[in-house]
Amino acid sequence: MPDTVLPPVLIVAHGQPAAPAAAAAELARFAAQVAALCPDRQIASVTLAEEGGLAKAVAALGAGGRLFPMFMAGGWFTRVHLPAKLREAGALGWQVLEPFGCDPALADLAVTLVRETGAHQVILAAHGSFKSSVPSDIAYALAEKISAETGAEVRAGFIDQDPQLASLTGFGQICLPFFAAAGGHVTQDIPAALAQAGFAGRILPPIGLDPRAVAVVAAALQAGRPVCATACRYQR
Questions:
Q1: What's the CA gap between 9 and 194, in Å, rounded?
Q2: pTM confidence score
Q3: How far is the C-alpha of 105 from the C-alpha of 215, rounded, in Å?
Q4: Which of 32, 89, 103, 226 has its CA 20 to 30 A from that of 153?
């Protein structure tokens, strides 16, 4: 009996329009680490900031693939935008998997990261959205989980909605950026907003850059959970 061929996987991130090559190279390194844990399947990566990149990647991988969004929320981008992009790229039989930020194992990793610091006041920095409640629902649910399992006081603060990070004055020993990579939001916006709030603690690397995140993604690919039609499992 021939060996079963698993569907190819394309790991997709937003990327950085101002510097698409650097973000694409960082994602490619991450994808290579994931591939090392999944030797039985083909894994590639692309950012949406790479012009024509998605169509080229889909064509190279063929039909029946799986798209894994390195996104932190399960809203419009993963349930509407990415499927539309796949159709535009001529993808046949592709599925969009649940995004990185909606994985319960990632939430467990966030708990572990906070527990390792021993901090009792934690800022969870997330992107948020003035257009949808889904990103903030995910962040608030994660903040509650971290607090319940570590005993720390955890407040969620956002870049693109209220409460903004700059408003969290006089609070926090550590800040955990709930982001997949170290783009401009992590390297510029979060430090600037926290400085405005008078934050004197430590900003951790974004959760997606923790070495253990590679195993989280590898396990998610093996599970192959497609996106649900309504909302992320961490939506309140």
A1: 37
A2: 0.91
A3: 9
A4: 103
Note whether 141 and 234 are within 8 A (CB): yes
Angle at 180 between CA 36 and CA 8, to 5 degrees: 40
Contacts of 193 (CB under 8 A, 6+ apart): 157, 159, 164, 165, 166
Query: And the tokens for 103?
Result: 């994985």
Q: Enumerate the β-bridge partners of residue 155.
A: 123
Helix axes 213-223, 104-117, angle to 10 degrees: 160
**Taking the CA atoms of the chain, what radius of gyration do you get in angstroms?**
18
Three-state SS at 159: coil
- 236 residues of the chain, pLDDT tens digit each: 345 789 999 999 999 888 889 999 999 999 999 999 999 999 999 999 999 999 999 999 999 999 999 999 887 888 888 999 999 999 999 999 999 999 999 999 999 999 999 999 999 999 987 676 777 899 999 999 999 999 999 999 999 899 999 999 999 999 999 999 988 899 999 999 999 999 999 999 999 999 999 999 999 998 877 765 434 443 33
In this structure, are residues 43 and 11 in contact, taking their beta carbons and an 8 Å threshold?
yes
Whole-angstrom distance, CA of residue 69 vs CA of residue 80: 12
Distance CA 221, CA 67 (A): 9
Residue ranges of E strands in 33-101: 43-47, 66-69, 95-96
- Token couple for 22: 């650097």
